[in-house]
Amino acid sequence: xxxxxxxxxxFLSTSAKATLAITAGIGASGSMNGTWASPNTPHHxxxxxxxxxxxxxxxxxxxxxxxxxxxxxxxxTKHAAAYATNVQDAAKAEGVDTNKPLEDVLAKISKxxxxxxxxGGGHYNHELFWKSMSPNSSEKPSxxxxxxxxxxxxxxxxxxxxxxxxxxxxxxxxxAWLFLDGDKKLRIGSTPNQDNPLMDVSDIKGFPVLGLDVWxxxxxxxxxxxxxxxxxxxxxxxxxxxxxxxxxxx
Length: 250
Ligand code: MN3
Known about the structure:
mainly alpha; minor pseudopilin epsh fold; binds manganese (III) ion; Helix Hairpins
């Protein structure tokens, strides 16, 4: 595998044509797990999102520490699946090339319909959300990400409080975010509905590294009105390895 990759790299350096072909191939797959990017591709493009729903990376009952199996199943197979179907419909109706990353559309979402905004955001946010959780959470970041969190928010606990408050104080439905702003500085914020920091219409702008769904459909069966209890338990399932990869790629 490693040998393959370096062969590809040296081949590329001598062939602009091949660069184009392979770049196009990556775009078409919409893979968030790609391990290669062209020299002109920003590193975070490795996390590009396609328009189709990807498989859940664990079982519905794997996150019981924080989220019950029925909530996971309904959330993934009904709510998130509907966003995926509807974003494809809207993209088709509005002439959007679905072989290109969804991120490209979100960056200029003001030019498109409310249907594309709501479902494009909904699809992107949930694809990120599933990957941001794991049954084998370390419950704490490490390395450069931990250092950046500690320097940005004083301590990991202070960060958790501030992020949790962003979720608790979001009136109605929306998301809490940890994101990198244009200066690559970590920031906390929240967005209403299915908006996110990639959107040109968003009050907060940047590259999302971690997002928390605070819509009632994400927690109501177990927690009812107690959103703060859901948020407190959610830290037990955060996939810090994934968050760290996004942070380091941005
Ligand atoms: Mn949701």
